[in-house]
Amino acid sequence: MTEPLLSLRSHLDAVAGFGELRTVRGAHWDLELGGIAELSYRLPGSPAVLFDEIAGYPAGMRVLTGSTASPRRFGRTLRLGDDLDDVGVVDALRGKPSRWAAAARQFPVLPVDDAPLLANEVPGEKVDLLSFPVPRWHAHDGGRFIGTGCFVVTSDPDTGVHNGGCYRMEVADDGRGVTLAVVPGKHGDQNIRRWFEKEGRAPVTVSFGHDPLLLVLGGTEVPHGISELEYAGAVLGERVPVVTGPDTGLPIPAGSELAIEGWLRPDHLREEGPFGEWTGYYSGRRRPNLAIDITRLYHRDDPILLGAPPGKPPHDYSYMRTVMKSAMIQDELAASGVPGVVKAWAHESGGGRLFIAVSLRQRYAGHARQVAYLTAQCPAAAYMNRYVVVVDDDVDPADLDQVIWAMSTRSDPVQDIEVMKRTWGSKLDPLSVEGEPPFNSRAIIDACRPYERLDTFPRVAESDPEFLRELAAKWRDALA
After folding, report:
1. Disulfide engineering: 389 pairs with which of 61, 160, 357, 458, CB 3.0-4.6 Å?
2. Which residue, of 306, 326, 353, is where some domain finishes?
3. Is-contact 289 48, C-beta < 8 A?
4. Chain-centre distance of CA 292, in angstroms?
């Protein structure tokens, strides 16, 4: 059988083809997979790691980490090219998110009756998720988390529009069930709450292994009302084939390795957490959480789990989120009509959310503050942002040294730092207080030269870039 669209195995073949895949055999599911993955993120080139012959499991049952953690792998994931560097992938992505969003509805999902996923079907009462090599990723995690690179499908009960999200999921009931830690306010959470209000339960399907394009889209803010599966079709230029779950009526990507379907109920809860999160801290304490009543499980022969364990940056998807969020923020600023925006960058050290810098060409008094406030609350950046810094166009917002230099020399704390209060935060925030609503605050830092002093502000002490390029060419041997 030909591999379906969005097959993880096709992605692995591509990654192996350009030399960025390493295989580790014999590691233990308890902490060793997570620790080896963490070490791999710090290696030059940060390779993808495929774990096989995992202790206690037969050969062929594998776990992949680091699927998008390099420009070549991320470029391949977004079908931008297989040979891009950091600059190339950013340039290739510029303007694409808005075009993909606009085209998404031209690519409705394509229901199919056959897929490798259907090779094995297990009824709900016989499900054992621990028959697969589910890792315990971090030393203080509350359990084994099968959902880190997952793709969770819910639907709007009124419109039928599907949503695909990526949420952490801990195995419960000795393998018979799994929790679903949906993020309050996200589209998946809104769908589930509406189903609860209308029907008293909510349908859900989950894929645990697939092309990492679905991980990318499930972990970013695709505009409301657009299905991530249709958005994926726009990226691919083809309709995404799906298997329709007979119990829930919801789609499952036909390229999935392992998937479940079932129902959520407000009173069906299991203990969950803590978990080492993308902020770099363990979040919360062990507490009751929504759990899926699994009605069916499907899997390919020798399925591959897609792992994406977060942690202190850099982690599995911090590079991906940084590049994707930066492009989405820049697109949204352009769509707002505000002029002069040159580049936006959601820094990896802030998890791609907490620290955002934007460069602009100032055109009028108040321009810098306008861009800062729009950035802080645009849909792509509104969730759990903490700092927005605006800089002039001679500063690269992706270079933290340059951003800090601009903050240190062009901003007056009394005049140029403003604070927005009671904004959209998260219980994942290490500063959040248990039992209180998850508001946060965010600082706006205007690190641009004062508009009224643009003509008189001290000149930067550096050579003309063109002159430096000429010197570099002339004195190449001496500077080598």
Report:
1. 357
2. 306
3. no
4. 23
